[in-house]
Amino acid sequence: MRHIAGFLTLALLSAPAASAQVAMPDASQMSGISLPAPELATGTVSVRVVRERMSNNITGQSVSVTSNGQTQSGTTDAQGRVEFPGFAPGAVVVATSAVEGEVLVSHELVMPARGGIRVALVAGASAAAPGERAAAEAAAKEPSRQGVVVLGGQSRVIGEFQNDTFTMFYILDIVNNARTPIDTGAPLDIPLPAGASNAGLMEGSTTQATLRGDMVRVTGPFPPGTTSVQIAFSLPDTGTSYTLRQRWPAAFEQPFVAVEKFGDLQVRSAQLPTQETIDADGGKMFVLANGGRLAAGDEMVVTFTNLPAHSMTPRWTAVGLAALILLAGFAYALAPARQSPRRALEAERVRLLKDLVAIENRRRAGRPKPKDAERRPEMMAMLERVLAELDEAPGGGQGAAA
What we know:
This protein is of the alpha+beta class.
């Protein structure tokens, strides 16, 4: 399977910011970093101010944003957020705030063409980070306790067409939001959908995950933070429509499906009401669909229609021509010696059949030669003439049968 990192990056950036903030224990790494937020109105910057960790919102805090020499100011609400609308796509914005003498400055934030961006300014993060890390490491060594995990972070379902085959990727983040290991009481079992074949666990998956037949099992306990499971499989016999039915063993915080768009391909799901079509790297287009939280055990149902389908006629034509060649060679090997003119006709028949098969194979592979289209009817006419002459030649009656 070819590399999909380019699209995975695009999919991550297309995620709503709420899910991007799951399981981020070191707030200092997030301070001043922009996160695309397609759920915000286009041209909107949302600034959040917190102290030391993401759970400590600072309310009533003055915040300024500057772009092209113009400055706007606002005050954070109860969630520690303040929004600034009206920036043009491509505008460069810098957010600042001073918390008890500490000046917080964001990176340069570039406004996207659609949606807005979010940024967090974290006061006291550098001083608190070593203590936070030490506390997290100590908690991770404690005995596991009963609890639940969720599919969060950057969990995605991605569909691409590879070698004319519909290929699916499950990029799953199993998130433990506690500070200690969590024992879910039973493994997390992910049964692959009907028609799945060539399944495998991709590089980057946890060693806690195993694949047996059409079942992926992930055993606990789950450490604090994120446990990654990445699954790939193909759906070779979808036809023009396919309904994906997938039951998840843990709550799916924000279901997200991205499918490579060919022609009039459509994605339909009552659970994924929000959709958009975007351009990806390499000139491809993808349909992005997302929806609300699915509970553990819920079945996600997504129907893909107008899938590119390929006629079986060319394949069977090529198989038939190959069979004709084999039968012709077999009949020739068993037949008694014939007069020289008949042997010449039989040799011509085999040559024409081989050439016709070669033309058909090139056409199916999408690499026809410039003159194949005009040569094929000529060669079919020549083959009919040769077969007729074989019927009339001494020892005839074998042309059409062969």
